[in-house]
Amino acid sequence: MKEYAICIVGGGSRYTPDMLAMLCNQKERFPLRKIVLYDNENERQDVVGAYAEILFKEYYPELKELVYTTDPDTAFSDIDFALMQIRAGRLNMREQDEKIAIKHGCLGQETCGAGGFAYGMRSIPAVVEIIKQIREKSPECWILNYSNPAAIVAEATNRIYSDDKRIINICDMPIAIMDMYAAVLGKKRKDLEPKYFGLNHFGWFTNIYDRETGEDYLPRLKEILKTPVDVQTEPLFQEPSWKATFKFMSTMIQDYDEYLPNTYLQYYLYPRKMFEKQNSDYTRANEVMDGNEKETYERMETIIALGKIKGTEFAITEDVGCHAEYIVDLATALANNTKEVFLLMTENKGIIENLDRHMMVEVPCRVGSSGVEPLVVGTVPTFYKGLIEQQYAYEKLTVDAYLEGSKKKAMQALVLNRTVVNTDTAIALLEDLIKANKEYWRELK
Ligand code: G6P
Ligand code: MN
């Protein structure tokens, strides 16, 4: 079996340690010869790198090379896959995004609304620059991008690198939701095959088929999920805000009983309710900084001091990072031509007949060594079409605002967002966001 070389871009991320442990667990079906960790921050990269050395010595002795670096030329040479998970401006800027939006009476969220807009304007140049650097060194490698806000990043990469068919934009939320469906049905996620349409963080499941029998579980799931469920699928979702999000699904299903919604639709369909739930002094960024981010780094520091993992409380279990397995599934599909179906962001081109051909939709796609082949959806009903078109116009105008440096388009984008709406609010928000993002945004005129 061929052995691959991969680079994790954003190697200092709190997601990296579990991802690395997961790669150890997956070495039979996705064997690696080289793992590169790349980050632009030395201090964080060194911690994850030192942890990785211990991890691989014990759990991946077959691995020939571990590199951790802040030099892009070193990082991107001789790689087959780049897994991109960067956060431009880190959690400090996420906190700003959320708090500035709340200050203006709007929802403060990482990928939705004003927060997602601000993050998008930071992410686009960062992602675009990294792709350019990757292509200089590894013109053929697959770039699996899951940097947020994925909808905007996907729109930007599709416009800027329109001929590059080896950039694939993916989000794990549909997978996490399907893990939950599988749990309530007493099945495994891979027993299920979804039909789905929409945009990233803005879509609906229309069918959930049993891969074997062909039974559609959608009616049963709707019945079950009308009552709030307590998900136990992974540690992240045990956090109070995620628990609340999964529970809120029941309200959405009661109010809209046609399809099953992506969790993120709560922000667009109930912006006032979600706004009222927020704490302007302590947002999700604060929760993550004080919680998962801190714990993950402390755990790595402890392991580095111990010098070992095996035989300690940190020993790798079979299910560590199992949720992130989807990324290996995707890489394996590309490498081994498995033709498995994934929900991916891709240019519409008629897949959803009654929507713009250039829209970056999120739909089921068959994946093999020649790339991504979207599967036909057909037409979508007026209500969904209206919502999607408005949201896509927001996403497109955000990318236009970036490409043209246009303040007018930035304002128009915000007005089109269902969590902002008012023109005066959009104008005031934009002024504050420009000030806060001086270091990151291109100038808007
Ligand atoms: C889901 C979404 C991601 C998001 C992540 C973490 O997996 O698909 O886009 O970044 O949740 O969100 P959090 O608020 O926990 O940082
Ligand atoms: Mn996502």
TrEMBL record:
Q: In what residue span(s) does the Glycosyl hydrolase family 4 C-terminal domain sit?
A: 196-420
Aminoacyl-tRNA synthetase in keyword set: no
Entries under PROSITE patterns matching the protein? GLYCOSYL_HYDROL_F4
Annotated cofactor note = Binds 1 NAD(+) per subunit.
Which keywords annotate this record?
A: Glycosidase, Hydrolase, Manganese, Metal-binding, NAD
InterPro entries for the chain: GlycHydrolase_4_CS, Glyco_hydro_4, Glyco_hydro_4_C, Lactate_DH/Glyco_Ohase_4_C, NAD(P)-bd_dom_sf
Q: Which domain of life is it from?
A: Bacteria
- Pfam families registered for this protein in UniProt: Glyco_hydro_4 (PF02056), Glyco_hydro_4C (PF11975)
| Cofactor(s) named in the record | NAD(+)
Complex and partners: Homotetramer.
Q: Which family does the similarity line name?
A: Belongs to the glycosyl hydrolase 4 family.
Instruction: List the protein's name.
Output: 6-phospho-alpha-glucosidase
User: Species name for this entry?
Assistant: Aequitasia blattaphilus
Tell me the lineage of the source organism: Bacteria, Bacillati, Bacillota, Clostridia, Lachnospirales
